[in-house]
Structure formats: structure tokens, C-alpha cells
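=== RUN LOG ===
request id: a7f3
mode: sequence -> structure
chains: 1
length: 304
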Amino acid sequence: MSFEHLTPTEVPEAIESIASSRIIRAGADRLQGQILNGKYRLTSILSKGGAGSVYLARNVESGSLVAIKILRSDLNLVPRVRERFLTESRAAARIRHPAVVHAIELGETAEGALFFVMDYVPGPPLRKLLNSHTLTIQQSVLIAAATAEGLKAAHTQDVVHRDLKPENILIPRNKNAGSVVKIVDFGIARLLNTPRITTTEHILGTPSYLSPEQAEGLSIDRRTDIYSLGIIMYEMLTGSVPFQGDTTEELLDAQIRRIPTPIHNRVLKPLPHPLEQLVMGCLQKNPDHRPNSMDEVLAILSIV
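=== RESULT ===
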């Protein structure tokens, strides 16, 4: 299915026809059917990860659907993991913006496992679209601008995502969602002006989307998200990330040292010059040479 004939506002309608349900139809889960905080009945598993699972739940009072992330029971006993989970819930609760999934409340299961309730967003991640479609320049700019708006709201609340990638950007099927994207998973977010969970910076994140300062284990600020957004824009426009590697070490070294191939050498159709300049500027190794804020990113995207 091609998006070439679609306007940006028609993207959500198009993806509905190719998006499969995010619900995992595996065997019954022991938590399914339980009611949390006296009102959220767990109905299905949406996703499973190393640290826990995300469930679809229904508010028995209002009938509305929500998503609930539950920390794995054994990891509740690991202080660092527990604190990161709490940080994720605090970060998602701080940000109120249509482009960011909002955390509604925090609680514990009867077994003592931490969980937090958040908006449920039916729709595929951007990764699914990139794997099956070629986005036009207009659609890429639309998604980039909406993502930048969400990150601007996060940065205003002193939250740095640190793990921005297509898997963590959902494309809502609901045309009334308020934004063409929903940023999720603040699991390794950094709350600026708060004590670090560890005394030294560890390499956290996904190697293909890490900023050079993350790859080197250096201190980070809002500009690390600008770099990761640059990687995503590069991928939307060219069909691949700027750096490939067979090992994590190769990818980290590339993020630190290699210069990305100019976009005009990777595409058949010419790009607006300001757009290519923006993407390549976001990918500067030195944070001081990148756009200084999401406002600067949005200003350029608005004229493309």
C-alpha cells in the first residue's frame, strides 16, 4: 500500500487498514481478570518485556480502556530497577501533551508489584510503518514535527527521553487523538535537576539511535533527544538509519566517530535544502553544534 496519494491528515486512516492488533493472543495470563486499584480490570496482554508487561484494562466505573504497565514481581526487590520504574511513571505523569502518552496513576498489585496506569493508544508503532511503507517527505515532516512537539513538552518539564526510536512512537488510529503521534516508554528517561539513580553514567538506550554522548557514557541533556530525532528523520527520509554495524561496539563507535552519508546521496528525489540541513545538523557529534532546542527544530520544519 502506498502513501504517495495521501495527505498528512489521511495517514491515520491508511495505517488502520494495515495495523494488526497489538494484543498478544497467548495463553491465559495469571493476572488477567484481576481488578487493580479497585477499578481497572485487566483483560489482555499488549506487550511483554524483560522488566514487565503492559496490559489492556477496562475502567469498570467509566468503561474506558487504559493500558497498565506492571513491573515483574521479582524485580520489585531490585532497588535500582524499582527506582527506574518509578522514574518512568513520574516522567509520564509530568507531561501533559497530545503527543505523549500520559500516566494517570500509580499503584501496587496484591503481590506487591508496582504498576502505573496510562492512556491506551490503539495503533501501530512507527517501526511497523517504516518496515512496510515508504513515507513521503510531507508525511515524514508531519511525524517529525508532532514528535518534536511532544519532546518539547517533555523538555519543558525537565524530562529527557533518552530512548527515542520508531518503536517508541505510536501512530494512533483514532483521528481524534489530538496528535498524529504518541511518544511512549520513558523507562530510561532522565529527570534533569534530580539526583541520578547511579553515580556514573551508564550506556542506556538503543545503539542505532544513541547520541554520541550516550555512547561514550557522558552526561546528557535535552540535545541528546535532538540527535535521536535526527536519526529517525534520516531513517524516514532514506529508508535506513545512518549507521550500520554487526556488533553493539561497532554501532557505538559509529555514533561517536563516523560522519553520516549526506541524505541527497541516499535518495532519488531531491529534498528541500532546509530539511536536509536540519537533519544533518541534528546529527552533529558535538551537542553545541546541533539545534539548541525543539523550538529551533520546529521552526525549520514549519517552513519545509
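=== NOTES ===
Residues 126-301 form a domain with the Transferase(Phosphotransferase); domain 1 fold (CATH 1.10.510.10).
DSSP finds nine helices and ten strands in the chain.
=== END ===
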